[in-house]
Design brief:
single chain; two-stranded parallel ribbon; 201 residues; four-stranded antiparallel beta sheet
Length: 201
């Protein structure tokens, strides 16, 4: 009988000791849940910034491709609009450029004109365009985007991404997007700079 009573007392004591189990389990699970939360936040933030940059790149090349003649002031206005698209996502000081290329007799992409966000020429006119590979531009094969005599507008946006909330999982890294369009209103878009010097002269 005494043995039974002792066993009952031990069971009661064990049940009392379980009162702190929930707190211990919570303390063990909390770090995992916290890390999972910050991971989701960081990856979601990075994906949102990348999607916004993709949209801005498409917007940049699309607006340029709609023009027949492009002036210094017009491209400045386009870059200002693209900046406004990027700003809410904390994308600051991106590198942006747009370039018009044609294919020469040797199937090489040649630069007609180029402009970056500072309205300077990042690439020399008449030089071979090497900022993107031929595979990225789809310049070869039966499905090539352009052939000799035709032109193509290429835009690129690149920026250093840093999470605006935390840096638990993702260190700063570079996000880069490019897009291409054919001129909508002709075979080639003519750019005229602030001194009224045009690319077709």
């Amino acid at each position: 009988m005494k043995a039974t009573n002792k066993l009952t007392d031990l069971q009661k004591s064990f049940r009392k000791d379980q009162d702190g189990v929930a707190a211990v389990e919570f303390a063990m699970v909390l770090p995992l849940v916290t890390m999972l939360f910050f991971g989701i936040v960081e990856f979601s933030d990075a994906m949102a910034a990348n999607r916004k940059a993709e949209h801005a790149t498409t917007m940049l090349v699309d607006l340029v491709s709609q023009e027949e003649f492009l002036t210094h002031d017009e491209i400045d206005g386009i870059y200002t609009a693209v900046d406004h698209v990027l700003a809410p996502y904390g994308i600051e000081e991106p590198t942006m450029w747009v370039v018009s290329i044609t294919i020469d007799a040797n199937d090489k992409p040649i630069i007609d004109w180029s402009l970056d966000q500072d309205l300077t020429e990042p690439f020399a006119r008449g030089s071979e365009f090497t900022a993107l590979s031929e595979s990225e531009l789809d310049l070869s094969g039966s499905d090539a985007l352009i052939t000799e005599g035709a032109s193509l507008i290429v835009a690129k946006i690149e920026f250093g991404y840093t999470s605006s909330l935390t840096n638990v999982y993702i260190d700063s890294f570079t996000l880069s997007n490019h897009d291409t369009r054919w001129p909508r209103r002709g075979t080639q878009i003519v750019y005229c700079d602030a001194q009224d010097q045009c690319s077709n002269e």
